[in-house]
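Researcher: Going back to the complex we discussed earlier. I've cleaned up the inputs and rechecked each line, so this should be the final set. Can you rerun the prediction on the complete assembly and write out the structure?
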Amino acid sequence: NAGVTQTPKFRVLKTGQSMTLLCAQDMNHEYMYWYRQDPGMGLRLIHYSVGEGTTAKGEVPDGYNVSRLKKQNFLLGLESAAPSQTSVYFCASRRLMNTEAFFGQGTRLTVV
Amino acid sequence: AQSVTQLDSHVSVSEGTPVLLRCNYSSSYSPSLFWYVQHPNKGLQLLLKYTSAATLVKGINGFEAEFKKSETSFHLTKPSAHMSDAAEYFCVVSDTMDSSYKLIFGSGTRLLVRP
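Model: Rerun complete. Updated structure for the full complex:
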């Protein structure tokens, strides 16, 4: 049972390039989330999904897009990367409201 | 709106002494509360959770937390710190009336353990 898997684990982008981060969960969870972690700021919610085919904006959505075409996958896209998007990105999934979230190992993204 | 305040950005203790990491929350209804730990360059691991059952919650590695509704607090404690406890700790709230069930994180407390 792999849990939550993020791909890739590391990436360096040039300003203006695009990329997609993949999150896959094998626990049949309904709810999935993308967070970014920056020093001293905890984890901030970028976008989330409450089920297959649904997405919604979180606290810091600008510059990102998401899709959830399959229940087990949640994709985070950067259309035109900026240095301000240098961060560690975490994906999480959750089954029900009173349960804990399970996190992936993170993607460290550097935009130069 | 939900929010979480971790009152200390850094806490330093000596090995074998008690640990106290403070957390206050704001939630419009009955919250679920969690503590997660993150070791350097690692993902997040659940320490413990409160979901409206017993107010004193026991977690892994000897940690526990007490939910105090009147004080809107959920402080994390451990009787005796170990070197392996050095990590960053996050207090997290989830509002059961929020249909997104999203988790709101505090800014984190870095725990340093001195030999």
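Model: Worth noting: The first strand of chain B starts at residue 3 and ends at 6.
Researcher: Good, that matches what I expected from the previous run.
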